[in-house]
Amino acid sequence: QVQLVESGGGLVQTGGSLRLSCAASGRAISSHVMAWFRRAPGKEREAVATISWDGASTYDTDSVKGRFTISRDNAKNTVFLQMNSLKSEDTAVYYCAARTVFVNEYLYWGQGTQVTVSS
After folding, report:
1. Whole-angstrom Cα distance, residue 118 to residue 13?
2. Per-residue confidence band for 67, with pLDDT thresholds at 50, 70 and 90
3. Apex 96 CA angle, 75 and 19, nearest 5
């Protein structure tokens, strides 16, 4: 089992930056694909960014390309999401998730952290 705890959310003005962290415990995540998802009010949950088990490959959804960067530190069992040039439409609850490389479903989820961007 993997337990995930997000932190770093908060209230920021348009154009500002935040860095989200996802600390894992229970087992090492070095063999897991990690991802950040978000759910905005009244909208479906969407994948924001993913990173391969070794950090060599990342994916960002179009709306955050060039603004958000996902990274990981396997030695610290932690994943990060650096968010720059924040927009009001980035307001959402952000969730960290993990899956093994053998299963295409994210089985482990954090409780979420609120990000609010004010204009």
Report:
1. 5
2. very high
3. 75
